[in-house]
Amino acid sequence: MESSAKEKEALQLMAEADKKIKSSGSFLGGMFGGAHKVEEACDMYARAANMFKMAKNWNAAGNAFCQVAKIHMQLQHKHDSASSFVDAGNAYKKVNPQ
Predict the structure, then answer these.
(1) Dist CA 69 CA 45 (whole Å)
(2) Is residue 43 exposed (0-12), middle (13-18) or buried (19+ Cβ within 10 Å)?
(3) pLDDT per residue over 57-81, tens digit each?
(4) Engineering a disulfide at 69: which of 16, 30, 57, 84 sits with its beta carbon 3.0 to 4.6 angstroms away?
């Protein structure tokens, strides 16, 4: 798969994850499986981050991993959150290795 195709697919995953996050915050979304949608969105962000890594778009990968980490923090998954922040840091280090 070409890197631009991976980036396009990753961007689509990010957009879908954003929609899931927004719908889980609504009143009806909160009553009917809001946490499940948030976890699905987290998985989508993680898949997008890995696709950005494969395409060597390190800045976008870092941003996606930060989204994953923030969601893990909301869900009280502290170890997963820390691991995602480490992944984000490693991606950002490839952009600016200071």
Answers:
(1) 10
(2) middle
(3) 999 999 999 999 999 999 999 999 9
(4) 84
